[in-house]
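Action item from last meeting closed. Structure (72 res):
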């Protein structure tokens, strides 16, 4: 079904299998991206709703853990 030297699909079925596998990988990546985006949005909403003291403490933790680095 595949070339032994370059792994190029030699049959339509092999090509279809490669495309199916690629599509599944893209679907998984899209789901992960959507989950990260949703989580980030929830974090930003929580930060926006935090009181000033909590915001300072969160910023302090970000800086201490290297998540945020001040740009000069």
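Sequence:
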């Amino acid at each position: 079904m595949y070339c032994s030297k370059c792994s190029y699909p030699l049959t339509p079925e092999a090509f279809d299998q490669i495309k199916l596998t690629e599509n599944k990988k893209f679907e998984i990546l899209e789901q992960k991206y959507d989950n990260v985006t949703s989580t980030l949005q929830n974090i930003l909403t929580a930060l926006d709703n935090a009181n000033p003291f909590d915001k300072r403490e969160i910023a302090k933790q970000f800086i201490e853990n290297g998540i945020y680095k001040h740009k000069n």
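Note appended to the action item: The mean pLDDT is 91.
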